[in-house]
Amino acid sequence: MSRQRIAILGSGNVATHLSRALSQTADIVQVYSRDITHARMLADALHCPNATDSLANLVTDADIYLMAVSDDAIEQIAAATPDTGIWAHTSGSIALDVLKKHKSRCGVFYPLQTFSRTTEVDFNRVPIFLEGSDPATAEALHTLARQISPIVNSADSRRRRVLHVAAVFACNFTNFMLTQADDILRAEGLDLSILTPLLEVTLDKVRHIAPAEAQTGPARRADYGVIEAHKHMLSGDAADIYDSLSKKIIKRYEQN
Amino acid sequence: MSRQRIAILGSGNVATHLSRALSQTADIVQVYSRDITHARMLADALHCPNATDSLANLVTDADIYLMAVSDDAIEQIAAATPDTGIWAHTSGSIALDVLKKHKSRCGVFYPLQTFSRTTEVDFNRVPIFLEGSDPATAEALHTLARQISPIVNSADSRRRRVLHVAAVFACNFTNFMLTQADDILRAEGLDLSILTPLLEVTLDKVRHIAPAEAQTGPARRADYGVIEAHKHMLSGDAADIYDSLSKKIIKRYEQN
């Protein structure tokens, strides 16, 4: 099979990591960004000669146009582009029907992972959830996805939104809790790495038992003495978070 | 060196896991619990013939009396017991001076880990933080700790409290976020294991970069469209948590 020809729209974290992985087995034929400097930087990194900041200059012969742009921009870009090839966005929260301009051949290519600019991404650990307007489109997206990830699933727009909101709790909010812990430790000259064994076990436990069953800590025991002492050690948002999450944990378990 | 003689006070998760580990290299000579059934169950599991629910019946010849009881009970038990051997509690939040009755030889033996009844504990991953009233007591506690864990550190009462409150964020609140994610996925017939790669990467990232730098997600991008859509999918405490944590993340990064 010949290599798929891919146009990348976007130059942020997702566009960068995804296009770098795809370039191993597909041809990145163009990079679009509304900022030409960003488009050129990413295109250069991919050894792709074609960078543009104009939707009017998009190539017309790509197999797949992959929109790794902000959620707000998807509909507008889709509406302004010619109906050629397969158009797919990479968002967890935007429904497929936003691509109605391209409704005969459109899809979603959603990598469920946290991408940071400064951290390498191992695509062996990036589940990709796909949706296609028709079987041939779905198949083309599956072919592309399987080249970079061993974990490829189908998910319709509703399921993808559920996955995304669950991921916000499991990843984004979890990371924010680690930020609070890091703040507290730094103020005492301690390093977050001191909690590494605890973090590993916290995550290991939920492979075997449900997190609701794995819950421990002062709030789980409704240990108000410790909770009050901790609140007095904290201030600002950390104190607010400690208070409100402790109350919610106490409430959840008060019948048990 | 002869085996240390340990009396265990308590029969909860910490007492159970800790005494089981200690029994490999030390002699558990007695188990006390205010509930004699619990004391007997734990003593039987440790092949220890002596279980009691009476502080008046405590053995007088143990080397170390280890109080793995609820924080509220520590001071009262310490005050009611004879001043013989070393008295140590296992709490992150209770200061050493609560053991003033035993002030000549007292200490703290704090395992910084999450203990659940149904999950095996690998003490190779349990950092133990120690405090002793005097060098000889600290040394005796170090000897005991090193028999079960490779990660043994000293920490005074203030530092221990800081570690404990940081651990509440990093472990207890993190687990509560996973509980929310699990609830959301279950309601759609999905399993939390679908997020395992995301959880692993979330944790791996903070080995290399600070969590404040690793933050991603709709709130980090101040993507109000996604945030509003997500809030509409949620109800009850999950919606409250989503709203309040998103606001705090937006606030933290709004200058960046």
Molecular structure report:
Two copies of one chain form a homodimer. The first copy, chain A, is of the alpha/beta class and 256 residues long. Helix content of chain A is 46%, strand content 14%. Chain A is built from nine helices and eight strands. The first copy, chain A, has helices at 13-22, 36-45, 71-79, 135-146, 157-187, 196-208, 211-214, 224-233, 236-253; strands at 5-9, 27-32, 51-52, 64-67, 86-89, 106-111, 128-132, 152-154. An eight-stranded mixed beta sheet of chain A has the order 3-2-1-4-5-6-7-8. In chain A, strand 7, helix 4 and strand 8 form a beta-alpha-beta unit. In chain A, helix 8 packs antiparallel against helix 9. The longest helix of chain A is centred in the last third of the chain and has 31 residues, at 157-187. Chain A is elongated. Chain A starts with a strand and ends with a helix. The mean pLDDT of chain A is 95. At the A-B interface, helix 5, helix 6, helix 7, helix 8 and helix 9 of A face helix 5, helix 6, helix 7, helix 8 and helix 9 of B.
List keywords for this structure.
homodimer, 256 residues, alpha/beta, eight-stranded mixed sheet, 9 helices, elongated
Topology:
The structure is a homodimer of 256-residue chains.
Chain A: E1 5-9, H1 13-22, E2 27-32, H2 36-45, E3 51-52, E4 64-67, H3 71-79, E5 86-89, E6 106-111, E7 128-132, H4 135-146, E8 152-154, H5 157-187, H6 196-208, H7 211-214, H8 224-233, H9 236-253
Parallel strand pairs in A: 1-2, 1-4, 2-3, 4-5, 5-6, 7-8
Antiparallel strand pairs in A: 6-7
Helix pairs in contact in A: 8-9
